[in-house]
Every structure is written in structure tokens, then in C-alpha cells.
Amino acid sequence: MPPRPPTFLITAGPTVEDIDPVRFISNRATGKLGFLTAQAALAGGHRVILIHGPVPEEVERSLPARTAGLMKVAVRSADEMHRRVQRHLKDVQVVVMSAAVADFTVEAPSNAKLKKREAGLSLRLKPTHDILAELGEQKRTQRKDLVLIGFALETGRGSTEQARAAERLREAYRKLTTKNLDALVLDTPDAMGADAAEFRILRAAHDEGNQQRLTKRLLARRLIKLGRELWAERQPTASF
């Protein structure tokens, strides 16, 4: 009897790091890819736990909370996303970390609105949890069965696009290795909010090929297929 299809944990959207009750630090992620990935997993017969930050209403509506096989968990901050991912990790076999989690959060958010000052304002930031690196370490030491797919949004440095592209690729491979990932999607800020963009899928075993322009819907399907295949490779009797 073949094993039960794996359950996917998918993260989506930005996180919001509050400065005071009015202002916050965030990014331009919309969560569109994460929600499409969840849809692709559900269409493939998988159970899904979708943990998402604040996303536009049209993205939120694209996947109703009462969808069969789906658990939706809304969070706000990087800390909340970290706690929720850890809480649900025991229930899943494949993780797709597509959320744009903030690297820094405000060290001491104000409980009252900060007033405008002629002298300006300085904020002290502290690093957030590196959720992906933490999952990679857990995969190394406790969850060797876990399939872990991450993302690296890079701009690269250099005076030419060729130099910037080379640095983006080097940094992506570094993250793939140091964070102990099975696969990693390399993209750029152009992907944020877009329906299609340039993506490159890297695997620990081999490179999936050159960067390609893909719709996010197609990329989502590829990610679910990849996650399922990576999981099946670890199952002695798995067949799909």
C-alpha cells in the first residue's frame, strides 16, 4: 500500500514589524505565489497548512478558509510566523517557505504614536529568527525526513548585469548549502506583486537549469511536483 501523500506547510506574504500603533516596517510581497502554491497542493490531493502574513484582500479571497484539506493561519510579525511554523512542523512532511519574512524588527515598539520631531527619528532594529536556517538545522538533527524548499530574493552587486547575476547565483548556492535545503528558488524584487517573473530552481543534487520566465501559477505547480518527488525519494515503497 503506497504511503499517504505528504502534507505541505506553505508560508506566504510579508511580515509586518510594528514601530508604533500606526506605523510599521514591511515589504512589497503580496503572498500571491504562496497562495497559488497552496492551491496547487490542494489540487494534487495534499493537505495544506498555509501560514501567511497580511496580504491584499483579493489574495486572501482566492483561497477560502473552509476549503477542504486546508488550514489557514494568519500572522502579522516574523516572531508570530516563527512560532506558528514551529507549532505545526510535526504535522507536515514538506515545507515551502515562500513568505518574505522581515530580517529585522523594531527592538522597542512604542505603545503610543510617535510624534513628529524636527530632529528626526532613529530606530534601533534587531534581527528576527532565521526560520529557514532553523528548519534546516532541525532537518539535519531531528527531521531527516523533512523536505525543505526555500527562496532567495537577491539583487546582486556589480557594475554590469552579468556580474550581478553571477553574485545572485553564488549567494543562492551559499544559502542552499548552509541552510541545508533540498531546493531553493532564486528570484529578484521584480517578482514581488507580479504575475510572472524570472525564477531559477536550484537543488542540492543538481542545478535545475537556467533562469526562466514563469508565471507564478506554473512555478507553484512545479514546486508541488518537486516537493512530492523529493519526499517520494525518501520513501522505500512510495509510488506516484
Verbal overview:
- The protein has 240 residues and is α/β, with parallel strands linked by helices.
- It has one domain (8-107, 125-233): 3-Layer(aba) Sandwich (Rossmann fold).
- 31% of the residues lie in helices and 22% in strands.
- The strands form 3 sheets. An 8-stranded mixed sheet has the order 5-4-1-6-9-10-11-12, sandwiched between helices. Strands 2-3 form a two-stranded antiparallel ribbon. A two-stranded antiparallel ribbon has the order 7-8.
- α1 crosses α6.
- The longest helix is centred in the C-terminal third of the chain and has 18 residues, at 161-178.
- It is globular, with a radius of gyration of 18 Å.
- The termini are close together.
CATH H level, superfamily name = CoaB-like
Order of helices and strands: EEEHEHEHEEEHEHEEEH
Described by strand count, sense and barrel closure, the largest sheet is: 8 strands, mixed
Please bin the fraction of helical residues: 25-40%
How does the overall form come out from the CA principal axes? globular
CATH fold type: Rossmann fold
Oligomer: single chain
Q: How big is the Rg? A: 18 Å
Q: What would the average pLDDT be, to the nearest integer?
A: 92
Strand content: 15-25%
The count of β-strands is: 12
In short:
The protein is of the alpha/beta class and 240 residues long.
Topology:
Blueprint: E1 8-12, E2 17-18, E3 24-25, H1 32-43, E4 48-52, H2 57-61, E5 70-74, H3 78-88, E6 94-97, E7 104-106, E8 125-127, H4 131-141, E9 147-153, H5 161-178, E10 183-187, E11 196-203, E12 212-215, H6 216-233
Parallel strand pairs: 1-4, 1-6, 4-5, 6-9, 9-10
Antiparallel strand pairs: 2-3, 7-8, 10-11, 11-12
